[in-house]
Amino acid sequence: MSITAADDQAGSPETAPDALAGFTIGVTATRRREEFCALLERRGARVVSAPAIRLVPVAEDAELLAATRAGLTAPIDDVVITTGVGFRGWMAAAEGWGLSGELAEHLASARLLTRGPKARGAVRAAGLTDHWTPPTESCEEVKQYLLAQDLRGRRIAVQLHGEPLTGFVAALREAGAEVIEVPVYRWLPYRDVSPLRRLISQAISGGVDAVAFTSAPAVLAMLNSARAEGLEDALIAAFAGPVVAACVGPVTAAPLEARGVPTVQPERSRLGTLARTLARHLPRHSVTRLTAGGHRLEIRGHAVAVDGELKPLPPAPMAVLKRLADKPGHVVARSDLRTVLPGGPSRDSAEHAVEMAITRLRRALGPSGIVETVVKRGYRLACDRNEGL
Predict the structure, then answer these.
(1) pTM score, two decimals?
(2) Which residue ranges hold the DNA-binding region (predicted)?
């Protein structure tokens, strides 16, 4: 299941410069990582960068050379081009091998089916003519377009985008086509896996509010890394619960949705629209708003806005505040608050740890009267008990 957000209207509150203030977002991108992180940070987000994958240069890939030579043995009827960067890389690699002229001739005589605008733009930039682009920018629609025709005896080259398109290719072959798989680039795990492992731990523990994915291989790399640590089920549970899985498009989201994880996607598969989608979604769905002690509170991932003033909170006071906000106005026992404290203090130190967290929370909030002590029972937010229920 995916939630698709329309492009933001100028001036909407969700797209204000501080729309993501108080939220922490994990970024798994490798390509254009700095650009995407900057888009989120300009909206006030705290960004955790954890590159999940790296790109194998196409000129070094023997599989691409073999596929290219196989394609050149006879005319090609159709070419499915899934990514613009992949197509440009293919053409550049062919030039390095001395095959660019022959490849261009074969492509010029074929029907070029481009998955989206970027792929179409790369084809046109190469001086070639695209035949058709699906409105949904999905491989599934390209497959259905081809299967609606008689494919018996047709030679079809399919440019892969980091992962095998097993079902896509199998369906074309079952329909009678000869399919040449073109692995234009391959993704491998990022050399330093420690940032990704830390991000997995943060997602499971609630240390991030969202994780943004810009490619399906990055999703698979994160899931595989979690599985290697015995944490895949916990990670899936986090994405199915409090942590938003934001994907640039349906291809990227597919591995998560296959596991039942809801995803948030922009209507257009672009980094800018993905950042704007997060800026709309998180303030609407991941903020607790209430009034306590006569003051307006907006509780976000790692901060609380008190009467509009954002106040970052350390993990322990934030955990206590969120637990109190689960039942506004109701008393929460110290024993209950102890269970949400990071690190799980021992029974002997638990009461002191709760008291310290409450003290730090009151100090950070500023105005008095927001958090009340109920003698011998616990603590409560000073608000109407029906609020937020």
Answers:
(1) 0.76
(2) 287-383
